[in-house]
Amino acid sequence: MKSNWIQRIPSQESYWMNRVLFDVHHNESHLARYLENPEVYLDFIPLALEMKKAIRDNDIATMYRAGVNPYLLRAHCLGLRIPESVFLESLRSVASGGKNG
Predict the structure, then answer these.
(1) Which of 11, 15, 28, 80 is the most exposed place for a label (fewest CB within 10 A)?
(2) Is residue 78 a contact partner of residue 53, using CB atoms and an 8 Å limit?
(3) Dihedral class, residue 46 (left if φ above 0, else alpha if ψ from -120 to 50, else beta)
(4) What SUPFAM superfamilies is this protein classified in (predicted)?
(5) Is the CATH code 1.10.700.10 the one for domain 12-96?
(6) Contact at 8 Å (CB) between 93 and 100?
(7) Which segments within 1-101 are labelled E, that is strand?
């Protein structure tokens, strides 16, 4: 999978992933619905199952590689109380090309 940081124009997939994270963390009603049932919240989002799973499972590395803005990823981690160490390790794994990268 090519990174959108290399592509000239981000993909529709990256747009929708960014949109989901923005909406969830900038609109309380979206956050409440997401926390209640992420799968139901994501049902109407035009994303491949793999990308919906990455959002649902908080797979930071996969979301970053798919072109999600790192600031939105950071807000996602803060909003869901994902530890800073998990966020940073996920990004480091991408940079090092490790198993999660």
Answers:
(1) 28
(2) no
(3) beta
(4) LigA subunit of an aromatic-ring-opening dioxygenase LigAB
(5) yes
(6) yes
(7) none
